[in-house]
Each structure stands twice: as C-alpha cells, then as structure tokens.
Write a structure and sequence with these properties.
By secondary structure, the protein is α+β, with helices and mostly antiparallel strands. Helices cover 32% and strands 21% of the residues. The longest helix is centred in the last third of the chain and has 19 residues. The structure holds one RNA strand of 87 nucleotides.
Length: 1020
Amino acid sequence: MKSPFLGLNKTNTMKYEPAVIEPKWQKYWEENGTFTVQSRIDGNQRKKYVLDMFPYPSANGLHVGHPEGYTATDIVCRFERMQGTAVLHPMGWDSFGLPAEQQAKKTGIPPRTITEKNIANFRRQLKMLGFSYDWTREVATTDTDYFKWTQWIFLLLYNTWFDPVQQKGRPISELPIPQDLAGTPATEAYRDEHRLAYQIEAPVNWCPALGTVLANEEVIQGRSERGNHPVVRMPLRQWMLRITAYADRLESDLEQLDWSDSVKALQRNWIGRSTGAEIDFYVGETAADDYEQWKTERQKTGFPRKPEDFAHFAAICRLPSAVLRIYTTRPDTLFGATYMVIAPEHPLVENLTTPERKEAVVEYCRSAASKSDLDRTELSKEKTGVFTGSYAVNPATGQPIPIWIADYVLISYGTGAIMAVPGHDTRDYEFAKQFGLPIVEVVQRAIGDGSDSRDGCGYGYGGGSGEGSGEGSGFGGGIEVAFTGEGWAINSDKYNGLSTVEFKEKITADLSQMGVGRKAVNYKLRDWLFSRQHFWGEPFPLLHEVDENNNMTGRCIALEESELPLDMPADLKFDAAHNSPEPPLEHAPDSWLYVERNGKKYKRETNTMPQWAGSCWYYLRFIDPKNGGQLVSPELEKQWMPVDLYVGGAEHAVLHLLYARFWHKVLFDYGIVSTPEPFQKLVNQGMILGETEFTGFILPKEKIVESSFTDYESALKKVAEGDAAWVSVSEISIDRDGYGTLKKDGTKLFSVKLSVNNVGKNGDNFFLKDDGVQDIQVDSRANKMSKSRGNVVNPDDVVVQYGADALRLYEMFMGPLESVKPWSMDGVRGVRNFLDRVWKMIVDVSEEAADGRRQMAAEVQNVPLSVEQNRMLHKTVKQVTLDIQTMSFNTAISRMMEFVNFFLKQEVRPKRAMEKFVLILSPLAPHICEELWQLLGHGGTLAYEPLPQYDESVLLESQVEIPISINGKLRSKITAAVNADEQTLEVAALSDARIAELTAGKTIVKKIIVPGKMINLVVK
RNA sequence: GCCCGAGUGGCGGAAUGGCAGACGCUGGGGAUUUAAAAUCCCCUACCUGUAAUGGGUGUGCGGGUUCGACUCCCGCCUUGGGUACCA
C-alpha cells in the first residue's frame, strides 16, 4: 500500500460523522486501488470468487433489496482478504432490457444513452455504499466488446450438436450423416435439424402489449410475467436452443452443488424428469392375424421411431391403419386402459378419423387451436373431447378400445398421446365420467382384510392397514374417485398380486420382449425460445439467403468468428405505432439489413437475443474482462472457477440459473471452462418488504351489541353499516399500565384508557374486553415495496440520514439473510446508535476535546486486559468469526453490540482490545473502522490486516452456574467448578437449600447429571 | 392438487435435545437540562400474588419419544413461495 495519509482529508469533528468519513475512505480505496486484484494468483494462495447477481440498471436506481445481498458478499470478501485469501469480487451491468427500449420509443433518446445514464447512477450508488468491488473489471452486457462474445457463444451453440451416446455437445462437423443423405443438399438440412440452436415456425407466445414474443417461462397462466398483459398464441419463425438435450445432466449435476434444497427442488421440478414406458398400440382392424403380423413387423423393422413415422410405418407394413405410441409413468395400469386420447395437434388425427366422424373432429380441432393457453387452463374444470371413430388394441387384454381426441392431452409432452386409465388417473376419470367410458380398477390400495389375496406380496409398506381398506376398493360398482397411489395389482391376469413397482418393471420388460414397448424417460423442460422482437438486444450473427424481392428463400448461414462483433444499426427509426410481432430491426437501414456475399444476397436475422443471453456467462468475463482474443484465458479460468459464492434474489432460482448452467455445460464440453458447474455455492437473499402497516378500526362502545367484532369479518360488516370507523394508524401500542396510544404518521392521535384486564388479544388483533371507552382492533401487515403503495425506501435517503455503514449494518441485522423481512426506519436508527456508541467507546467526544484535535477517549489506554475483558474479547472474536463463516450476520452484530455494551461500562478500555474489535467489525462497517483504525495510530487501510484470532483456553471459566431442575422444571441454580464431576455436583445439588426443601419427604427416583451443563432430578 | 419453506413477546428476531425470549426496536419510569433534543440508567412474554430468591402458564393445534422437546417422530391447521390437465 502507498503512503497512509495520502489524499486524506483531515477532519476536525469529534462526533461520528459518516457524511465526512465515508466519502473520504471511498476515495482512498479508489485512489490506492485497494481492492484491485491481480488476475494471476501467487503461489498457493487460497482463492475465493464471490459473485453478486449483477443488476439491471433501471431508471429508478438502486432498491434497498440490492444492498442486502451485496453487503453480505462484501462482508465475506473483506473477511477473506483479512485471512490472506485472493478474492475476486467484481460488479457489472445486465444492461439490455425492455424498459430502456420502451423509454427510447417514447422519448426518441437512443437506448444506449439512457442505459449509460442509468449505469452511472447505479455505479455512484454502489460506490456510496463502500462495496469492495474491483471496479477495473466492470463489464456491461451492452458493451460491444462484451456482446461480441455473447454472439460468439451463440455461434458455438449453432455449430454444435448433442451426441446422445457420449452425452455431450460436439462440433456439428462431427455429426454422422445417414448414408442416404450423404453428399446431397439434404446434408445441410440434416445438420440444421441437429444444431443446439435451430429455428422453427411455431406457435409462440405473442404479447401485443409488450410488443414481443415471450418464453414459456415468462408466461404465467396465459399472461405476461412482466406487466400481467394477455398473451396470445400465434405462429412465427423463432430461434430455439436445445436445452432439453442437457436435461439429464442439468438434473443430475445438481447433486454436487452447495445450494439450498429448495432451489434444487425448484430446478428439478422445472426439469420434471419422469420415468415410465413407451407403449405402441396397434390401431385398425382387430383381427388377430393382423395384430400378430403387426407385431412381427414391429420387431423386424424397429419402426416407428417418432410419432411422424407412424403413418409411414403403417404403409410399409401394408396394414390397414397405423400404430399409436404413448408414454406413461404407470405401465402397471395397462389392463385398466379403456380408451386412448391424442392431442388435437397429433399427426395421426387425420389418419385415425373415420369419414363419419370427420366433421365433428375437424370442428373440435379448430376450436382447440383457437383457444389460448389461458382458455385451456381456465376451462380445465370441464373436459372436452371427440371420438375419432377408430380403435386401438390394448396389448395386454387384446381388447379394442376407442381413440378420442381431447385437449387435456398436450402435444408438447411425451408423444402427444396417452392410454387413458380412468380407474387410476384423475383426469382420465373425469373424462370417462363425462363421456360414459368404462372404468376398470386394476390397483388395490391395500390388502382387503379377511380376504385371501395377500399371497405373493409380503410388503409391509403402503397405506394404513385396516383403516380405509374397505372403502373405494370394491370394483364393479362405480367408484367415486380415482385411486392414483401405489398398491397391488388386481384384474391384471397373470400379474395379479404384484406391487406397483414390481409390476412396472415386469410389464415393461414383457412389452419390450414383444417389441411393442420400452423403458422411457420424459422431461417437462422444453427447448428455450431464444429470440425476441426487440431492438435493444444482441443481434444474431446470422444471414438468410433472399431473392430479389427480399423474401427469404434459401438456408440460414452463420457469420464467421472474425466478423464479430455484429453491432446493431446506428440509426434506427422507432415506429411508435409498431404493434405487430415483426421485429423492429426489420426497419433497419438497408445498409445494415442486406449483405452481399459470393454473389448472393443475404438478409440479416432481425430477431435479437433475450436479456438472459448476456447474464448466462458474465461470471466468466469478470475473470479476464479485457481479453480481446478469447472469451476468457484458459489459464485464468482454471485459477478462478468455479464461483465459490453466488448471492442473489430467489426470483432467479429457475430461469437464469438453469440457462447459465446450460451454456456452461456446452462450454465445458469444448474445454473452454474447466468445471462442469459454474456456481458452487448459492445463497438467495430474502426480499425486503415495506414497513409494517397497521390498519385498524375503532368501534364506539355503545353501538356494540355483542362481542362479535372480535372476528374480523363481522367487524368489516359493522364498518360497512356505519357502526364503526376505519382508521389507518402507523402504530399502536397498549401498555400494561393502562394507557394505549394510537398514532398516525408519527403524531399522537389520541390515548385511550385501557388496562391489562380489559385488553384482550385475538390472533394479531387487540380488543377491549369490557369497561373500555372504545374498542380497537388492529391488523398489521408488511407489503412488497411498490411505487403505488408509496412505501419504497431509497438507499440514497438512508445514507444521507444515517450513513452507509448504518444501512449496511441494518440490512444485515434485520434477520437471517435468506428470510423475507419488513423494513423499519427505527431499526436503522438502532444500529446507527450502535455505531455512535462504537465511536464513543474509542474516540474522545467530550467538550474539552472539541478544540480541533482528535484523540482517543481517555479510557482507551495502553494496558493489558483484565481476565474478564480478555474473555469478552475472545468470546466476541470467536462468535463473530463463526457467524460470518455461516453468514449469520444478524447474530454476529448482536455479539458486537454486547461487546460495546460491556466495554462502555469499563473505566479502562485496553487499546489492544479496541484494535481487535475494530478489525472484526470492519468487514461489516468498513468506513467507521478505517477511521478508528487510523485514530488508533495505524497507517493505511485495515483491509489486509490479519483477522484477530481467538484462543479457546481464554474462554474457559473456572466456575459455572449449573441449573437444577426437578421433574424438568427449573428450581434452583448452583455455582460449581467447571470440571466438577457428577458426584461433586450431586452432593452440591442435594445440599442446596431450596432443593432440599422441595425434595423433603419425597423419593428421588432418578438423577440426570451432565457435568458442566445441568442437573435434573426425577422426584416422586 | 403437487413440491419447497415458515409459524416463538407489542415488533424484527435469538436459542437445533439441556436456564425460552440473546441483541435490537417500540413503550414506560428515572437521571441530566431553565426547557427541549441528544445522552445515560432501570423496567418491559402472560396470568397470579401485598410481598419474594413466590406460584402457575407459555414457542400454531392434537398426539408420541425422552429424565428433559421451540428443537426429534406421527397426524392436522394457518401462512408464504413455486408449479399445475406434464399422463
């Protein structure tokens, strides 16, 4: 470090004034590059990569939710540096995004200008909070130098196929081409079908209000996640990323991560892996000969592979009809499959529809297609469907079963067709009831009592025996509800008596043997819709061949790596009335839009990438932010990856984290990154809510007829009837001495005479029992911060009033990092008071000292610590160290409060204790600690001072207080030597006056003595 | 419906099998002050008792395990979040 006092403003203030010392130290850190970290780590220095989820720089500036996670990581970083760890702690901007584009449309100001202004504001605010970022590594996803590499990764994805055998991504040039395609123009089409980035013409979620297409993940119940606008389905050419290829690895690699179970569960849920079986149903005439021939052909050809192949298969088999493949997780219920259902979009709809059913089917499919997702889910109560006229053969029973079309079967999952087992599936049951289809039970929930069917299954698990065994298990009669659990097979021929688990395995094997079924795995995860109709996003490095009328004709080709970055057009006219799914880049100047190459004319791709793209890999760029030739240097990547700690909001628990993991795995397959997973440990900070608001009402006593107002609903009614009035109060308190105070906006509204006797509590509500002048009921609730509620807390205001250290400390003191908690300005005042006391503990704040010379408090002296003081110091150091390691910052702070409470009472405060305290407080409240450190006579920064160590032996006390309980109830306490053995303790306990009194005349049945801890006597 | 989490004073929370309520806020009382602010000290789970080093109750509800349960087990209730015709 450089000269200690260089560039520091001398302050003449005795008082703790954050407004003076905080900017002073921020300037010092910046000028001295205190937190700049060398990319190369020396020798075997320990490394730690601590990452915050970088923010979207919105026009609103920082929200108090941001500093919560940022403070937590900052504490960890500062703590680690003081232990000699090399710490990488960067910050940047996720700066593409819709708001800037919308503002640009409105104002005509280019989005880049808007974004830069917002970034400047965010940067100022973050620096104001004293976070120890290495600002030399700052990146923004909108920087050309940055999105060059986002485009580069896209090209990599484009030029990759997923090899299912090796379970990894490989160069598209290594894709084996089927012989019949080799050398033909179809080769390229075949490759295009296998790329990780591919385009489709498909129904997409078009949101007119936002003017964009949304990913499935961004649509919630038929409405947009952002803004809650209606979303309609319409066909459009789109780019997709084949994330489903990595579903298995994305799921199984979760195991090795140090993430909360809930986030892992969330991701598993989203991936939605299920295992079951695919079963092929013979469709057409039911003649046994045909059926046997069909099975033989199946075994010979191995066809069909995909639903689209079915018709083809029927043709090559020269069979009258086709084959219908379904997916089920319950192959054990095959004997109960009494009909089949295919989705309205299923490729076989036409083939399966008989002439006399055609009209009804066409009509049904048309109405299903016009339904939005919203309609489909909202109308889910009523099942709809139509019979095709065709039948399939249940391979287990050989019986023909009808094939229906219904929109409760989704084309996008499994094979788009199901075998319906109304006896054991709720949806099939509802459908069967509605259309009068047969219901057969094939699973028994428990072995019937008294019956003999127990043979062959000695399993003890399963539903509660005895109870419940009678109801619902009698087949033949109509059942009231489908039993969807596991149990034992009935009505299943030779499989009867098998458990669900056994049955599944057996029948899957048997079907496989017959060539009509096989084990199968399915995922809920869908491919990632990767294109957006925005201007303010990364352009795709792609070109489409066009004819002289600029219509896309030929293939799509990719740019070369050397052509990157592909910048967006400089002068784009925004069409304010733009209200179609057409991308804004369609309006780009021709000079940008059209390219000539090898004598052919090409048009650029006009879709852009979604905001997720830039945030998928930013953690890699921080390692090597200025590398012009590589995304990241392999050597540096190896040193710093993986991210050791990643902190951010739970709202990214699924999408961002899944997308980033997917990209990372592709990079891993190419050896560009060295770890299979990017983020080793993940912590989600809980949301900070607005201040708790109290709503209450006052009910004039005379109008109360009965006490029913203690119930909230009836109180509401009374208010409505005019018998009671609402008040909005910011605070109410009822003390035990007989006065309750009701305040509004900080002003006292009135006091009510109350007493403990007549104040009752019902849940969260107070009420007067009797004798009260008025009855009061108060409802308290903390809400999300929002502009419309007017409860947004601005970090700027808090820093002006209380200082950055106070804000940091308060956010950490509120409660556990991961829980949701309401803001409290009084709480901020509380930690500010603590900082004032810390200051007073060390600095001379007396009148006499106000002559301009700052000095230590007279109590701070260069003397050894007393035993008690030393113990307090070591205890505090120990607790704080452990708490920071487990990120329990709230308790760490409370320990330090105890330290200050203790030492403020000491007439002599050894300087050494003060110094150590300042060091352990410094990760949490760095500014005040730097100042105090300087005042204690040290030069430079304390950022790299070794962290104080604690000595376990100092903590040992010679005497301890031992609680004595009788029958589990605390009755007395004795003081004993810390190492007193059981016998000594027993004697001491029994001779204790109070214990002797309470045990007199009674028998001590048992004595539990835990040396050094407690004594419990069981007395009769 | 399914998956995950939570439920402790007036409030935020602490204690993961051994003294429930640390620490902080709020409220009350006192000191200081001409006064106020600021600061400092004391009290603050509930009921009961004239009193205390008193008695009783108490960690969402009902059971259980244990000498001992906020903590572990079983069954519920409430609540927050995620997800949903995913076969």
